[in-house]
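Propose amino acids for all 54 sites.
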């Protein structure tokens, strides 16, 4: 929706990922925060790994 109204420059096309996002949105806030924490750690790890592999 954000993509369609100009709020975002990317659009989720992966149906498997979209389903997971919908499931996460249905969780209680505390559970969402735990998932966001692990996602953030994974993204940071991969960015660091990419930066040092150059």
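Proposal:
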């Amino acid at each position: 929706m954000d993509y369609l109204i100009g709020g975002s420059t990317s659009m989720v096309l992966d149906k498997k990922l979209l389903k997971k996002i919908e499931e996460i949105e249905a969780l209680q806030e505390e559970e969402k925060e735990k998932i966001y924490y692990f996602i953030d750690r994974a993204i940071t790890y991969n960015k660091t790994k990419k930066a040092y592999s150059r």
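The two ends are 36 Å apart (CA to CA). The chain has a mean pLDDT of 86.
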